[in-house]
Amino acid sequence: MKSETQDNNSNITNYSITTCAKSGGFWIRGIRNKTVISEYKHYKKAGKGTAINGKGFVGDGGWKKAGVYSKGHVKATLKGNKSYYDHK
Q1: Which helix (H) or strand (E) holds 82?
Q2: 59: domain CATH number?
Q3: 25: which of 38, 65, 70, 77 is 20 to 30 A away, CA to CA?
């Protein structure tokens, strides 16, 4: 399962964080301190959070066991920042 959120805020200095329950886990995503974040944990399966900026640089949190946050972080760009989660 993959999902994506994209910031539409060109002012990357502001906080723009969204949190929610997602696909059997919990997902934190957005922009924090000029950093794109995707932090995901699944309650019963391995989970992964991945952040990608507008230049294509990737911050991959790697696969983490159930109940542990995978934290993908990368320096934000003015546009094109994306956050993803996955589980298996």
Answers
A1: strand 82-87
A2: 2.60.40.2850
A3: 77
